[in-house]
Please model this.
Amino acid sequence: MVDQSFLHDGLDFMAGKVGGIGSIPLTAPTPCREWELGALLNHVIATTTLLSRIAAGHPVEAEHLAPAATAATAFTGEPEQAFAKAAALARETFADPGGWERTVAMPTGAEFPGAVLAKLIALDAVAHGWDIARATGQDDTLPAPLVDTAMAFATDFVRPEVRGTTIGHQVHVGPAATKTERFVAFLGRQP
Model:
């Protein structure tokens, strides 16, 4: 039996933070210094959609997955509904346990089990859910089981060669840092 909780919990966390944006303008700054709130939402919605499409066997051009491209891919409608649509596609794509085990070819030529794509969607949702929470004054504390799973996957998956490109350089935090602070610092954010 495939444990799908990381995917669902990550998408739920992000959905809650998107739902809490309220009247904050999409031009508000975020912890992702290069992206305002609207661009960050574009990125999460597009990335969730594209990775789900790849996992389902649909062709996606590599350049469409680049962070600059996903941030520039404007979502339509209200943020909450746009993210809900992307999350529903991810949930549907990975509802079949066989999809978690199937080898998926990325546009870059790399191959991963479907489970890795599901976890990448979850990791992106958790990290950027924190960004949205921080940018909009919401509680940015990650629930303990979610932050533990996200950190375990991130430390296993993030390679040094992606630091400074798609993922920031790790920020050092002291021994009193919370699990959430250690997680976001690992991904290059200042807690």
